[in-house]
Amino acid sequence: MLDRQDNVVPSKVRVIALTADEALEQSLRTTFGASGKIELSIVKGNVLNEESGFSPADASVVIVDLDAGNPDELAALQRLTNRIGRWPPVIVVTEGFNAELGRGLVQMRVADFLVKPVDGIDVVRACARVAQGPTDDEVREAEIFTFLPAAGGVGVTTLAIQTAMTLLNSGPRGGVKTCLVDLDFQHGACADYLDLEPRLDLSEIDPRPERLDRQLLEVMLSRHASGLSLIAAPNRPAEMRSFDPGMVTRLLDLVSSHFDYVVIDMPRTWFSWTDNVLTGSNKLFIVSEMTVPGLRHAKKLMGAISERLGPDQQPLVIVNRFEQRLFAPGLRLADIKQALGAGFCGTVPNNYRLVREAIDRGIPLDEVKSGNNVSAEMKKLVLPQRAKAAKAEPEGKRLLFWAK
Fold first, then answer.
1. For residues 96-112, b (16+ Cβ closer than 10 Å) or e, as one string?
2. At what angle do helices 99-107 and 245-256 cross, to 10 degrees?
């Protein structure tokens, strides 16, 4: 075995390899069998039937032999990485490789990939590197909150901004790094709502997204006085703008590696990169208004997302501008719950004067009125665990942690 400085495998590593390739299986058994520090398990088959007898829960590393030319296997790999998250790390072994596949594997958060034919010692070194886990110096992954409008004018930008402010203030001042990303390149309004200059230069990074690095990102960030960072481009209402999915993916990967929380304001139009953004989100909210057509649009959108991205990606619906008066006609809370079923997340009250003043002045809602009803309800929806814990605590005692 190699010593620790040469990518030594940590003591007692369990590697699970999923493959139907007999040559690869034999190479892995020969190489890994030479070490008493590695326990190798081979699961015969491919990622399409990985649910049968394949449990990565106690593994240190998972190796997946992938047919990259099979879209079904790529979709199954996406489901696998979504299910197990960052641990155990996944190494992909594939026969062919191109830039598009590379972007896809990065987006799926695959830890490493090797191209056949592979030398067994290369696999050992890859396993040694990823099995050590992230160090303190390595980037952390942000938690991503994405807001998608069910229809136009439902207030999605206001709720996205308020969510970003809520997350920013969810820890000690200056200790929680939060970024708001406006992906509505045609009609985006986040910069206007916060009275900031949009600094994302799409013409510079779209032709060559690989140029986007930490230094360039810093130049293109807009900073709010609260400490909130904003990624937004000058909107072009008269242009229908679509961009290479690789550019959007690169942008979001870079942002998520440097912030604790990322909040995304999505356009209503579905682009080629929309699936990737929604799949990579930890929490996905559809924003609707309190009308029958609005609820219908929200329900159809819920179904479309589940159909496109699979049952693991279940969006939740927030009904904005909610009003209910006793003995007045119109929709009631019970009607909304019945229409949306398990997809219903909650409501945000209608406070038109507050929201209008905040937008006109370019400031957050809490600067207009601290503790307002819109901010309070959004906090319950975005930080539900904290809200429950705070309610259970004696008065004057707060619980200072974030529960994912």
1. eeeeebebbbebbbbbb
2. 40
162, 364 in Cβ contact below 8 A? Answer: yes
Q: Answer yes or no: are the C-beta atoms of 220 and 200 closer than 8 Å.
A: yes
The pTM score is 0.64
What stretch(es) of the chain map to CATH 3.40.50.300?
143-392
Closest CA to 383 of 363, 398, 365, 367: 398
Residue for token pair 């006085």: 225
Start and end residues for every CATH 3.40.50.2300 domain found in the chain: 4-131
pLDDT-based confidence at residue 82 (cuts at 50, 70, 90): low
Q: Residue 335: is it exposed, middle or buried by C-beta count within 10 angstroms (0-12/13-18/19+)?
A: middle
Per-residue model confidence (pLDDT) at position 9: 41
Which contiguous run of DSSP H or E holds residue 298?
Answer: helix 292-309
* 98 pLDDT above the threshold of 90: no
Beta bridge partners of 18: 43, 64
Confidence of residue 96 (pLDDT cuts 50, 70, 90): confident
- Could you report the per-residue pLDDT of 208-250, keeping only the tens digit for each? 776 777 778 888 899 998 999 999 999 877 777 667 777 888 8
Phi-psi region at 374: left, alpha or beta (left = phi > 0; alpha = psi -120 to 50) = alpha
Q: Is 54 helix (H, G, I), strand (E, B) or coil?
A: coil
pLDDT at 207 > cutoff 70: yes
Exposure pattern of 229-244 as b/e (b: 16+ CB <10 Å)?
A: bbbbbebeeeeeeebb
Q: Domain 143-392, CATH 3.40.50.300 — does that match?
A: yes
CATH class of the domain at 4-131:
alpha beta
Q: Which two tokens stand for residue 273?
A: 């990169």
